[in-house]
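@channel anyone free to eyeball this complex?
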Amino acid sequence: MSDHPPPGTPVLELRGVHKSFGPVEVLNGIDFAANAGEVTALVGDNGAGKSTLVKCIGGIYSMDSGAYLFKGQPVSVHLPKDAAALGIEIVYQDLALADNLDIVQNMFLGREKRGRFAALDEASMEKEAAKTLAGLSVRTVKSLRQRVASLSGGQRQTVAIAKAVLWNSTVVILDEPTAALGVAQTEQVLQLVRTLADQGLAVVLISHNMRDVIQVSDRICALYLGRVAADVRTADVTVSDVIQMITTGAPPDKKTVANGAEGDTVAASGAVAATSGGSA
Amino acid sequence: MSATEVAPNLSKEPAAPGTPAPAGTESTVQVESPSLVDYGREYISKVRGGDMGALPAILGLLVLCVAFAILRSRFVSAINFANLFTQGAAVTVIAMGLVFVLLLGEIDLSAGFASGVCAAVMATLTAEHGQPWWVSILAGLGTGVVIGLVLGFLVARVGIPSFVVTLAAFLAFQGTVLLIIGNGGNISIRDETIVAISNKNLPTYGGWILFAVVVLGFGASQLMRSATRRRGGLQADPFSVIAVRTGALAVLAGLAVYALNLQRSRTAIVSLKGVPIVIPIILVLVVVGTYVLNRTSYGRHIYAVGGNAEAARRAGINVVRIRISCFVICSAMAAVGGIIAASRATSVDPNAGGSNTLLYAVGAAVIGGTSLFGGKGRIIDAVLGGAVVAVIDNGMGLMGYSAGTKFIVTGCVLAVAASVDALSRKRAASTGRI
Ligand SMILES: Nc1ncnc2c1ncn2[C@@H]1O[C@H](COP(=O)(O)OP(=O)(O)OP(=O)(O)O)[C@@H](O)[C@H]1O
Ligand SMILES: [Mg+2]
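replying in thread with the prediction:
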């Protein structure tokens, strides 16, 4: 965990990302950055393109065009393992767990620990899994050797989150991680999000819960119909500003925008959003 | 006792299974017994939840054996007992290969005739081109690998449903066998080594050495596993459970070796006794296959692809390569099965690997508890299911039923097994056990 860039510098940067599914243009020139030591909230209405953007970052989808920079260097990410190799961990909205495997097996899937004779080192995997889950205050799981199929929605989500924080990663992206969680678990996850950022990781949180977003994030990036409607510092906006960004795609008043550079982006993309609104 | 209490279950609450020892069980007896009871209870709740594992196959096997033993005393003779193994060996091996493909949720309908093609290649080389046995066998296995690569490529890379690809291959391979051997033809195999595979036995002491290796190996691997977990402070199988398992295996294997070492020859001149050579061959395949599936990350990835291919992909697993490799394993195992069958018949005819071979092999895997829906199955399932199929075939043969009746009965058994699979899956879905 020592090689995190200094806080505030962009670790992950996307520039001008386009992505279409057939004729449907889902991402329309997205600029996005996640800074070390910060929680970046990615918000937007249903269908705005948040999950699609995350899947492009994770190498699940390949971008049609756009630049992908990691720690300032252009990189090519075409497969999930490319993203994992960079230290990018993602909890997908449609949880990627194999129902027929147990909790430990899922948490280490694709990155199993091996001992002698290429055999799996089950004991040490189970121990690490237990430690990580204990850190997430999981109390209701009966056994780590339980099939994931037998878990509740929230428990599955916790396993998916545990899977992502198990690794010494640089970027952690959580796509609506608290959607299925109870009050205590939600608090736990938000706390975890904060802790990860304080440890120097770049954290991206997607959520529809404005209270959570305001509480935990340092920056808010709002998507509107596949474009960036606004990219602001959380301290500068109110809940109603954020809701306005999400629902109308209009950025908050200029004065609230944090710094010049970001202000430009916001103004530019805001203008584009307005154009698209006109043509629709 | 130690196991349930030492275990660092995540729960800080005392919710470990079986911890609240209910009234009714005698709580005063020895230390180990609660864990055995726990295991029994856990197993029952598993079965109730729809995770029946090998239970239907074992029960079926018992019922069938008892029924045939009552109906035909010849069924329990030494010679018939040995026959069961040599008759069932080829189908069992093909079924083991099918388990890999079934785990993916795919099917290989061409495995039967693939075994025929491989056997024909081997027979041609040894009988008509005078190649040594090992060249012929390797060529047969190589043919299986190539077949698997082609099938796997078409399914995993091109994206044709495996049902269609292997149905096409079924027809094509049937034709291939015909072309290699010629209509009405027959290649007989004289090579002693190849013939020995299905027709010769280990010396009696060899049977007991095999017995010792199997039982000690099983016990030792279980103990080592338990010790490693205990050292790591994890829930481990208690000694009593390991002792019961190993003891049960020792009794069954001991009885089998004893029975196979009885004199089977009817004449005084030739001696016919000992463990058939196919048995150690199958044991090696079972051990290797089980190790690969349960103890290696490759095996873990096969289950993951079968359970949720998208999750596997996102975990960085090369799903296409896993799929292709499973088809290769399946066809290569079919080649082994074909060679065993050819050795038993000491010849290969145009129908090699045809007629009931495929149905029996798929039946064996499914009857043993491998799911047709993917993600669930074990190598040992193929052996248990293979035993059921062999007993049905053998027992009904002894009772004088025609091939037609045998086919109908085996078909019905497969349908029943598939229903058990589907129903227990439904039940598992409702109780969350999958
Ligand atoms: N695989 C796909 N094929 C075609 N269209 C897709 C696909 N995935 C997403 N879309 C479309 O892309 C748009 C954005 O979807 P996305 O899942 O990124 O939204 P989102 O912002 O994550 O929404 P939510 O808040 O509901 O999760 C939607 O209109 C959706 O219909
Ligand atoms: Mg989404």
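from a first look: Chain A has nine helices and ten strands.
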